[in-house]
Give the backbone structure.
Amino acid sequence: MIVTLAGHVDHGKTSLIRALTDVDTDVLPEEKRRGLTIDLGFAYMRRDGDVLGFVDVPGHHRFIHNMVAGVAAMQFALLVVDAGDGPMPQTREHLQILSLSGLRRGLVALTKCDQAGRSRVAAAEAEVRAGIKGTFLEEARILRTSAVTGAGIVELRQALWSAADRLAANAAQGQFRLAVDRAFNIQGAGLVVTGTVHAGRMAHPGELHVFPGGEVVRVRGLRVQDGPAKSAIAGDRAAVNLAGVGLDRMARGRWLTQRPMPERHNFVIDLQVLDDFPRPVRHWLPVHVYHATSHSTARLALLHSTKALPGERQEAEIITEEPLCARHGDHLVLRDQSLDRTLGGGRVLTDMAPSPLRRRHPARLAPVSAFRHRHHHDLIDALLNQGPVALAPLQNTLGLLDAELTSALSAFELVRLDGEAVLKKHWAQWRHDVLAFIRRHHEEKPTAPGVSPNLPADGIPTRFYLHILNELVVEGRLRRTAGAYHLPSHTAATPKEERVLFDQVRSRLDQDQAPSLGDLAKALGMPLGQLEAGLGALARRGLLVQVSAKRFYLPKRLQAIASQVATLAEEAPLSVRRFRDSTGIGRNIAIELLEFLDRKGFTKRTGDVRTVVGKRELR
């Protein structure tokens, strides 16, 4: 268990840790000179192989950014209050930050009780109890201590171990993420980074990715809770010896991740404005955003109104200058840039990819409601009921491993296609709508051979339309003729002028060596352009087949030629010359026919010879 100490400046956090662990967490010369904590300090307490870690965060308001960097949602809070002073402004702000960061368990330590009278200590305890009312520490124990006399230290140590014993083992779920809070070189070892594991499991040896940037790094060594280890899981404090990256690329605010993460700048959060913030929060307010050890300036965009009053909760979008390694369920802390005070924060609902839609467009915001669910099953169920779900972005937003995503999806009946998942009930409805659309098309346009795949039915995503058409063809519920899809019972009524033209050309095209458009136009005494348009219309009806830009065939004649090709190819390798000599078809027309069969996938050319790769029936 990792314990985060928080409280007002000079209320004795560092002295309390020293009394518990015999470790002085103020190690910087400036901290020694000024007698206050500036940066994060770390210490550990051991018992029969178990380890408690302590994070000492700065109490001074000027170092709030360092304080936030030491807090993680899975940690245990130890709120420190000087018995003489009682709760102070920074006590309240630190408690607010702990709550906004997602902490839900903790204790309160009254310090310096040896310096205050009994009545003052009792009054301070009452003040603390009033101050924590309505917070996650409302039912927490308040222990009276003195780092000088040692009073209450044993009881506090026992209370912390008792809390650790009750703590369920952290589940190593999700993709590994570690927020870096320190980076330094050690002679003989190289680069070492330290931080808190926010999710997943990391094993040594192995490879990780740096965020942002995406560099691949190799894990050379690992320590967890200040001891050698082979793996680290969510909640652990870890020191990782890395190879493949320099100190100039690793600093507080970087992350180590199991997979490369997209560098997102837009996040929708469930914004909670603090009830003591002195003014309404306006749309597009400039803010500081804190996520674990990361910090960025940003704009706060309210999604449903122009302002949020103190104490209000509403959805908002954060647009950051620097990319954040935030995922669904993470917590952000927001501070007002001009007032230099915490205004609130919230749980990350989802990251937002760039979109051409307006920020408040209903189609852009529709998925957000699904991400309000905390449980993955409920969240995915809500998303799938809205429509198709792109799986790779969902997996990234939720931080799931492949097996975890597969398990989460196994509860649903899905059609998975090209990286998306669709509920089978939606897919079945689309199939029904496609058949109904084609049926209406036949009724409205009886002379049309069918529906083009470029004319999708209303309400069906264009990217799925062709898949549904071809699926229905395979099942025999549709047929495809000359590129048009139609019901098996549909026979297009041919207009009179097309029937007349077909009667004129049928006998002339019913031969192995069909005439060109030019020769046919001369024979019929018809303008070339008019003839070309008329034969194209007949080809779309399936009455003719266009094998080249200037030559058409009857389908049955073309099938007979294809059968000849198949027979010849079975006997011996088929060249253009052998095909020409065997059929008596001229060389140029023979080449046009063979190239047409290649395009149809009936034959395959290798060098100068062809083999039959399709079925004997030409489609």
About this structure: The longest helix spans residues 424-444.
